[in-house]
Design goal:
single chain; 481 residues; mainly alpha; two-stranded antiparallel sheet; 19 helices; globular
Length: 481
């Protein structure tokens, strides 16, 4: 045990044990059963000192997130939920009810936390200079979208959605810098698990909130309603559970996996099915260093092949119309219509983020409503300039995610890369990047992928014990603030 004293007060600082040799895992298997790539409290975060914000001296130990900031993260991760069916014109008119007030309070608190973190101790200038290229592209896109809010027919709605996007990006950036990337991902996992649990409870106690009709059944038969996008949340939960659990063959991991898979199946969300299928294919191709994950994927592949051979697989066409697959549920026609409007009326600056899709989307198909794609939402709302910046951001993050998959095989790298690709697929088919689970996971990826794809960071992540031995001894004993 190494203990040092403060130069000012002479009082002993928080003691930190320095691990010099690797320890064998506990025989009872109780250590790191759940989400093993997440560090326990007090563990050193393996990242470059220059990438850690924390005052005059570099910090190598991240502090724990308190209850208030954790609750705030969970609230903005959930949306918060809508809780009721709301007329699209009500948002355009600026009608306010208790759900709108709840959203304003939650996002106002999140914005206040972001502002406090930026300006405390005079770190505003430092924070701006520390932004990576993805954050700079994101901020430039948000500024261009803010220009479109001025010419929007519903400026208040556009301004609030743009504000949500800015807060989502900065909140995840600051949360990762202050509490660590792995701990942040742990919060995201338990947030997704909590939303899945609430959805399962509401399926029995409040069915009107979560059950809707499917294509061929007017009765409530599809589990994706007003609370959260069930397909997207269950897909995120499955990815993070399987990449984080060290031993999947336990009661709690198997119970959670069963819950997530049941919600995924009942959601009848074909995009979420595609995400999980792509995730399993990547596991077979990449073969990450996760024994339980590979065993489960091999077992699932064998079961699916056996069911297919005996014609026992359930037919999705009994619930969803197969004729809509080629047109993506008429999304292709909607995207053509919205693109023509944008390029005709305001090609450079758009017609107002989010509000324009509420106006022009129902003109093409009242059943679709919005643009149903984060790319076309930005094109219609912010024009070619905003779309180009967002496309550059997605391409940059995609390149870094592919690089991470090619260079590393550890579970954390695999989880971050697959989580980002899941966000791209889900966001392309209907979800947004201003609020909600897909948005928070997208901006988390934008905050984490830049330093993870760096060669030096990758080497330290692969050899944590070697990287710790190179750290200054005094820095290892610093107080965890």
């Amino acid at each position: 045990m190494l203990r040092c004293r403060s130069k000012r007060t002479g009082s002993p600082l928080h003691s930190t044990r320095i691990k010099t040799q690797g320890r064998a895992p506990a025989k009872d298997g109780t250590q790191n059963q759940m989400t093993s790539f997440f560090p326990s409290p007090g563990r050193l975060h393996q990242s470059k000192p220059s990438q850690v914000v924390g005052g005059a001296r570099p910090r190598f130990i991240y502090q724990q997130a308190g209850f208030a900031v954790t609750l705030l993260l969970l609230l903005i991760f959930s949306g918060p939920p809508r809780f009721r069916i709301r007329d699209g014109e009500a948002s355009l008119r600026g009608d306010v009810d208790w759900v709108v007030v709840l959203h304003i309070l939650v996002w106002g608190s999140a914005g206040a936390w972001v502002l406090f973190q930026i300006i405390k101790r005079g770190r505003a200038k430092l924070q701006v200079t520390r932004l990576q290229l993805p954050q700079k592209l994101g901020l430039a896109m948000i500024l261009c979208l803010a220009v479109s809010a001025v010419i929007s027919k519903a400026p208040a709605l556009s301004a609030f959605k743009i504000y949500q996007m800015a807060v989502s990006m900065l909140f995840m950036q600051l949360f990762v810098e202050r509490f660590g990337a792995k701990r942040c991902l742990k919060k995201i996992f338990w947030g997704a698990a909590l939303l899945c649990g609430v959805t399962a409870v509401c399926a029995f106690l409040a069915p009107d909130l979560v059950w809707i009709a499917s294509d061929f059944n007017p009765d409530p038969s599809r589990l994706t309603g007003l609370l959260v996008p069930t397909g997207a949340v269950s897909a995120f939960a499955i990815i993070l559970l399987l990449t984080g659990v060290q031993r999947i063959w336990r009661v709690l991991p198997l119970a959670l996996l069963s819950l997530f898979l049941a919600l995924l199946v009942l959601s009848l969300t074909r995009t979420a099915y595609l995400v999980i299928l792509g995730f399993f294919v990547l596991v077979l191709i990449k073969r990450p260093n996760a024994k339980s994950l590979k065993q489960l994927v091999y077992l699932a592949s064998a079961v699916v092949l056996a069911l297919y051979a005996y014609h026992w697989l359930p037919n999705l066409s009994e619930y969803r119309n197969p004729e809509t697959v080629s047109s993506l549920d008429d999304r292709i026609g909607l995207w053509r219509y919205l693109s023509n409007i944008t390029l005709t009326q305001s090609p450079w600056w758009g017609l107002g983020y989010y509000s324009s899709s509420r106006i022009y989307g129902p003109q093409y198909n009242p059943g679709l409503g919005t643009a149903h794609s984060m790319f076309f939402e930005i094109l219609l709302g912010g024009g070619v300039v905003s779309f180009a910046l967002f496309a550059a951001l997605c391409i940059l993050l995609s390149v870094r995610a592919v690089y991470l998959l090619l260079k590393n095989r550890d579970r954390f790298s695999f989880a971050v890369a697959t989580l980002f690709f899941a966000c791209l697929i889900l966001g392309s088919m209907g979800d947004e990047i201003d609020s909600g689970p897909v948005a928070m996971c997208f901006w988390y990826s934008a905050a984490v992928l830049p330093w993870m794809s760096d060669d030096r960071s990758s080497k330290r992540a692969a050899r944590p014990e070697e990287s710790r031995r190179h750290l200054p001894m005094k820095a290892l004993a610093l107080n965890e603030r």
